[in-house]
Records
---
Amino acid sequence: MTKTKRLWRALRLAALALVGAAALGAMTPEPAFAQETSAAVETVAADEGTGEVIAVQEAAPEAPALTVDKGDTGWMLVSTVLVLLMIIPGLALFYGGLVRAKNMVSILSQVFVVTGIGMVMWLLVGYSLAFTDGGGLNRFVGGLSKAFLNGVDVTTMVETFSVGIAIPELIFVAFQMTFACITAALVLGGVAERVKFSTVVIFAIIWPVLVYYPMAHMVWWWGGPIMASDPANAEALAAGAGLIWNFGALDFAGGTVVHINSGVAALVGALLLGSRTGYRKEPMPPHNLTFTVIGAGLLWVGWVGFNAGSNLESNAYAALALINTFVAPAGAALSWTLTEWLTKGKPSLLGLASGAVAGLVAVTPAAGFAGPVGALILGLVVGPICLFACSALKSWLKYDDSLDVFGIHGIGGIVGAIGTGIVVNPDFGGAGIVNYVTGAAEYPGIVAQVTKQALGVAVTIGWSAVGSLIVWVIARGLTGGRVSKEVEAEGVDYAEHGEVAYHS
């Protein structure tokens, strides 16, 4: 059987599997959370006439009604569009400028197709696997009760982080959809300039199912503030939350879910596919730094929606996330550039752009927890660390992560996730961790919280490494993985797409 036939066979099997999953999901009712139930409570009372003790059925107190706030709804609409801006055209231009001219069409096409596949997959099974109860597997992944958005319509709501406040569920679906898309698209930078388009397609279908959806569930799935506000629900709340959420690890907007996850997946793909022909033997500079800087600027603007939108409400915490999204990348851009200036003799434009992105990555898990000074310090620290990872570390280990996804997103995500455990400290200007029973901001101590953060990082690295290896092996087995040396030398654009980005 030819590789093409194997590819189409795999796609047909995947389609059949999705249809079957959706059918199963439609037959599986969504479990009710504690805050959604109003079960009758049996009490004991005495009959006034006879004194006989009788059982009386009383209705349990109703949970607070959910109220949709139009301001929050409007803010989430804007935030969702901002995150889409990060991908197309932001990330596409950022990556496009970094590759050689002969591969411009290739990387743009890959980012575009991964975004399209990501949206469709999220609608079919992604949202359900990430944000529903998974029964016996709930620690790791959700179920299929909302596959094909079963039960999701204009009347359904999702709680925010304030008791009784909600947004339309369709907005939450769309917002989280963009996160799934950009995470898979980020991975492409690690295998750029030699991976086949067909390999990318297979990766975009399988990787989110095995890696991203479970990771999102493990980090962000929990019972909600109404449930958490009642101390009697403590045991049920713990039992119903994802694995990493249960650790007590904090990830405001996706330091683990998006950045460490994509960075590790990119590294695994780069190692498995091998280096570009001529790597470390001939120069491979970016072909258009103008595009890269424009892309970095669009990423920075869109990241406001990414971070501040993750608050789900338009309030002071969203404002905190916004200012942190300003100062952390500013600090990282300056510290990266200064380090580069001192060690290499010249400050580069690419260093400024790369440093800003590293700062955005680092502040992502801490955006709504750190104070502005803490976010600035986080940015100042991460700049030199990511510069080291993208230069000295990469050179020593001799791997070809084409666009430094692991060096910026993987390492930057690790620094940010661990650092979140420190900058959340109210003594350092952080916002603390909300106790929904008392309403107060709490903090368990640096050692305790950093330990929780490190545990979350370790699970993320392990899950992404193993899952990504499986996906890349499957994708390479079905399609061959990378283009021929001849195609690579000529440029992937015309051989794979019949187009070129520039005409003389």
---
Amino acid sequence: MSDEEPLSSSRRSGVSRPPLSRVELRHPPGHYYRSVALGTLCPGLGLLGTRWRNLGRALVLVTLLVIGFTLARLWRGGVLRSALEASVSPEVLQWVGLGVLVGGVLWLGSIVLPAEQTWPPRRRTGRVARVAFAAAACLIIAAPAAMAVQLLDVQATLIDESFASESDDNNNGLTGGSKEDPWAGTPRVNTLLIGSDAGADRIGVRTDSLMVVSTNTETGDTLLIGIPRNLEFVPIPDDNPLSTVWPNGYDCGDECLMNGIWTLAEDRRDLFPGVESPGRQSTIDVVGAITGLEIDHSVVINLRGFTALVNAMGGVEINVQERVCTDCSQREDGSIRWTKGVERWIEPGVQRLDGHDALWYSRSRAGKDDFSRMRRQRCVAGALIDQADPVSLLRNYPELAAVVKNNVDFDIPRDDLTAWVDLILRVQEGGSIRSLPFTNKVLSPANPDFDEIRRLVDKALTPPPPPTPNPSPPSTSTPTGSAKPSPSPSVTPDDADAADLSVTC
């Protein structure tokens, strides 16, 4: 035996085994596992030690180019911003989905081909282990790729079906902006959130919750304005066809409330030729007349889907200010009835609410008044805006997308969604979220002063500049001690002053 001949395990053990062939010497059993592992780590890497090495080099090069391009895009636009902007473009989503599909197939090929090329010949032992190793490697790549393709398809379908296209009429698209700042021509955007309470036990659609989200597009500062559902004598603008029937506003007393405007308009569709949703349009018009704001967009949320929406977001953390009952109603004598026969409360304190409790916290009126309810609704809305977690959203995304598609209706043009991504990031990164309370100390729902409401809204949106400090008087020396500074006058806000959510919630 030459000095270069390795001592085989058969000689050491005294067991006679056939000598290794040249192929076996070139591809020992350990080579198989290394090649499969390298192919799993990077497409083409496992092929570099086989006769398919040129193909391996090409795959490695393409992989590095894709990684480099992706990192450059993320570095230029930021990880979160780039991901969100891609998520609102059906075209980008489709191309990314195709890329993931093709890349996944090539990656699987770069695992299977090295496995075939380095399979140890004449080796019967360990065959099951080798097959299981390759199968596990393929699963590591195939499972995430399949999930990614599914999520991308779900998102593209959601954007296509939930948002108006550019060709739609009355889509209130952005104008005057630029690529650098799409909101340059729009200093403020006002969005009406409508919580609809349609159901089998309801007559028509009741706008159970109305809230205007007014956002400064430069700073991200946002004001939440809750509109009482039980306002009487609400004004109807002259350009709304309902004004021909109700020229002095909706003025038939406590039977004609704000939350009935939607159904009122839908019952008179003959007055709205060519209008897809007279109820929605009329609700927007009336809220605009109440607040003095031009409502740019609206989002209609079916409250039946609210529970699933919050659950899909991983819940919402709320600083509960008051004890609120769930699964309850109020009897005529003021006592509380438990609809499920079990007494249950949401207790004060900071806690994370699931969808069921968040809905009851937002809507419960048992033992409370509408103003307390409105405050809680603003708190929940602000918390959802502030706490949206991309990780939780992604984890539960198919469920979330189904909820949104079936229960949320937007009138925002699809072409403006990248601008809205930018605006949402401004709100989350640096904007304040304030709440404008309309309580029974400010207005009477039975006899509201709409001029005062509009004044308070305007005041909240245009706060006075900070006071200019008075020049300090010349300092005078004192022989003993230091003079105590005069206390600064404390400012007591009005009952209707806008306050940060951290204070009111």
---
Amino acid sequence: MEQGLSLSQLLFIVLLGLFWINGWAPLWAVLLVSIWYLSLIWLEQNGTLDKWNASRALGIILMLRTNHGKVALEKVSNPRRFWRWYGEFSIWLCLGMMGLVVFLLFATAILTTMQPSQQEVLPATDLLLIPGVTSFVPLKWPLIALIIALIIHEYSHGIQARAHGMQVRSFGLLLAGPLPVGAFAEPEYEEMVRAPLRERMRLYAAGPSINLLATWMVLILLSATANGFVAENPGVHATGIIKETGAEDAGLLPYETITHIDGAEINDYDDFTSALESYSAGESALFSVLPRPSDNENSERDIEIVFTDKHEHYMRPCLEEISCDAEEYSLLLGDELGIFEGDAFVGMIVSEGTAAADRWSFLFNEESSTIEKTVQTIFAPFAMLGVPIANEGHTMILEERAMLSAGDGAIASTLGTDGMLAVFDFLFWLIWINFLLGFANLIPMVPFDGGHIVRDGTHSTLRFFMRKSNPIRIENLAERLSSMSSLFILLILLIPIVLPRIF
């Protein structure tokens, strides 16, 4: 390199080395980031980035700009009154979600502070949540979902800019190597500065809000897709075997499918519970079971299970608790759960063959009320966040995934089982990425959209209550308060990351 490396650039290389030495990042990751960083510096110094209409940001991020999409933007943003209304709605949606974001950040920080040594230390690559790099985020569908989420996020910013008369200089993509890590719409800076605070807040809120709205819109499609699956084989299976019960003694394994009990056909959970009503504790029955999908066997086997006492099993927690009234607890089991002495108990956690899909088909569950469906819809994205972590990057438990088959609907029949599973995976990751992108962007800290909303909102509030004060004084105060809140939030963010590594 003609100009060589500056002191700050050398320090960055040293910092990367410290990440490897301390075990926070593997050697291959450090080497790849270093090569990418040095390549960007070289391209910047020889003028190549200028020729590409690109620039370097935050050291290792490549900003690629384009004017493509501006014509379409002009057409989409034409109903300006509608988009201004949407921008106002976005502000209130984002403020509500921002309160939840702050609550979760504080709760996580407090829990980590109370027991830092018991918190799991995630690898540095898992903190980045990058497709193909993070252990529980695969490459294919999450990468496609990320590109779509980034496009609609930034395009929504651009629509708000044009709806309020601001010019958009360019659109662009943020790259860390070959992976997109962000996108941007670049309004004219002078117009942004001169724009009314409310209009700027609408612009900033539009990005996260469209990701959140896309989350729940795609959730409807996911629920419809999940409803299109049927069980490959009729019956029920155990997701868990309870110790010291007939199921364990007989050698029943998790995810083996029970098809018959003493010759009676078992198609679903209702058949299973009905069959058990004719038995009592101490009796036995012959269970016909199919092997687990992972066993790659087709032969059915018969096992004899001796039933234990269901009432005795459910009474055990009460008997182990000194303050528990056994007689009252027993009556409660009978009145509320219909569990009585002598009831037959297999000793398994029962699920149907469509359990992997049933979890997300709640919108088409005829037994659920409108209120139940609404609550499930609101909280479903939160439940989805932990699924890839629990399933090592998969959208379902693999054993239960193998039990699914495409239904007889027109779309399901056309796509087949593999096609339906591919659609499910894509929609799942589209929800996951959109929700995470919208949620993370509402962190009330600059440079996130949430930070800009807080800054302009603070400025607007101060201007309302300090009408007689100098506007410059109000602006400076708003900037100081915004900077202080950003630093405070940064500290809160770092606590769950740093403390477990120290202790």
---
Amino acid sequence: MRALIPLVLTVLTLQAKQNPPNIVFILADDLGYGDVGCYNSESKVPTPHLDRLAKQGMRFTDAHSPSTVCTPTRYSFLTGRMAFRTGMRGVFTGVGGPCMIEEGRPTIGGMLQKKGYTTALFGKWHVGMTFFDKSGKPINQNGLAAVKRIDYSRSIPDAPIHRGFDHFYGTVCCPTTDWLYAFVDGDRIPVPPTHIVDRGPLPKHPYSRDNRPGMIAPGFDLEEVDMVFLKKSLGFLESHAEKSPQKPFFLFHSMQAVHLPSFPGDAFKGKTKAGPHGDFIAEMDHVVGELMKSLEKHGFAENTLVIFSSDNGPEVPTSIAMRRDYKHNGARPWRGIKRDQWEGGHRVPFIACWPGRIKSGSTSGQTICLTDIMATCAAITGATLPRNAAEDSFNILPVLLGEKGREPVREFTLHQTMSLALAIRNGNWKYLDHKGSGGNNYNRSGEWGMKQFALPEKAPDAPGQLYNLKDDPGETTNLYFKHPEVVKALKEQLEKFKQSGRSAP
């Protein structure tokens, strides 16, 4: 079988050159492993479209976001490079920037452009843009005061259309939590914000937290943002079918759902029996269904690789309220949530569907990361990645093709938090190079505190954490002192990857 692998990949690459597949990547926001029905038999929210996608393709059970929060995960997906290598901490808000992706760095969009693809991004960008004040000085600051200084007559020099995308319509950061509530079209904001958002009429519930009093543009409906993004993606698919159906395309659909605040659109309010956040998950699932329906309608489905995933685990208030009110655990069965270095913070749903290529109803336990999509798309299209690109991206095409008996694609996997705390995985061993969660404060009590989910620390004096995920998937027992040789080896390997600037071959 192994002798056939190079031949299979060569044949596939030749076929791709002659008839390259379309590629659609759908990224949900703050959707946990346990939020999807096909990953959690105890989920209280139906996800029929995602469940159907899994039946039509391959479901990964050991897939990971590169970071436990949004901005670094997006950077890493777009570049195939771990974001900690940039030194940037935290996430962008308002007009924070400049773009994390420096000019000239290869991106997945730019790579596919060179292979003849039309590339499009609809939704949230969240890796930084540069705006200017009336004197022409760049702003690149978070907060309301910075937004008020923007000169909207000036174009944006580092928007997605300058980083590998032919088309972009979306938002700078999170569209319903930001200081800047307005849509970017290409490299401009055609309808600038004019006033402070009136939060009075907005829903009031535990899932409405996180909405900042920023500047909002006329007609910007906080409860219909994802429907706007969907309309743009559907319009792109229709236009492409009419104008250039033979040309391959790469569509990155970047959702707001299900990031707080949970503002489901009117069509989804009360749709589930799991409250506003359950309704928001249902809206997210609907978006997936509509995109799949459009691919079928326009004749693209048979030659399109569709990948669905999330940027990290579920949010704190979401997790607390959903467990309390509906007995729904969005991180099930893992410890931790968004921001945490434990599995619940970065083990995410990952479903890939490619008719005739990926076996229907298959499951893979291979350890993979969202950074791997870039190297995989390069392998599919025959693109050549330069040495200074996709430094943490591994080709998972052999896994997608369902080849048996292979060694793990990844020997090591890196993880990071917004504070740049790092972890490394090798097989069943996972080493956290820090104390605690690396993210959330588990000493905080009260209604919205995480102390209620804190576990007893088995090695309180240990400067780091070591877990065997096979024997202890819940990461309950720190083996730091019991296996010093494993700690030493993993810590040395982590330092090597940091110093060398890459973890991929």
